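ok, trying the design again with the full structure, not the truncated one.
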């Protein structure tokens, strides 16, 4: 199973880039749960100023089974555009969205976009579980908090939120960048090249 996680780039003024920690935590959770059974890649399109069309070449190179995006409200349009590109490449690829934008918008998003899965709230446990069910052919069900999806029968939405009581139980994400130069720089944080980076 191949999973591609993307932080979309929307051309807006910005002061500083920060790593897409939500996606990095998801990648760490997938690696911890599935090991080498899931090949996961994280691409911060925002830090690299990559337009949506860039995704076309990445899809041909990686051929993911699942493409997940994390989007803020102002990144909604570009996230939807990326989902359309993914579906044009291969309509069977699962498209998922999480982050602040889809919170309490599952019905709207599933009704008028190319997204198959919507995660409202933390997905550190629910996203890997949905991937597991996809891998095994198990029904997605209605028990995953904050998870919504579309089927031939309609839209299934679980409005609950997955609450963490022990954040230390989450696997630590890899924070290295696969770029020869640092992508993220603040007065307290410098993340540069590392072997086996996300």
């Amino acid at each position: 199973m191949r999973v591609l996680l993307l932080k979309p780039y929307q051309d807006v003024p910005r002061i500083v880039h920060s790593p897409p920690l939500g996606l990095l935590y998801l990648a760490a959770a997938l690696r911890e749960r599935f090991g080498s059974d899931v090949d996961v890649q994280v691409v911060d399109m925002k830090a690299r100023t990559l337009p949506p069309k860039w995704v076309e070449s990445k899809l041909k190179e990686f051929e993911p089974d699942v493409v997940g995006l994390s989007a803020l409200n102002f990144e909604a349009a570009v996230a939807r555009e990326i989902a359309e590109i993914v579906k044009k490449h291969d309509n069977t690829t699962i498209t998922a969205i999480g982050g602040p934008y889809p919170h309490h918008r599952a019905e709207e998003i599933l009704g008028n976009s190319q997204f198959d899965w919507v995660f409202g709230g933390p997905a550190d446990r629910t996203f890997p579980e949905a991937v597991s069910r996809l891998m095994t052919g198990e029904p997605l069900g209605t028990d995953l908090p904050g998870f919504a999806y579309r089927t031939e029968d309609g839209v299934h939405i679980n409005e609950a939120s997955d609450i963490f009581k022990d954040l230390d139980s989450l696997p630590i994400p890899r924070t290295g960048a696969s770029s020869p130069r640092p992508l993220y720089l603040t007065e307290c944080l410098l993340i540069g090249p590392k072997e086996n980076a996300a």
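Keeping the full-length input from now on. The chain is about 25% helix and 20% strand.
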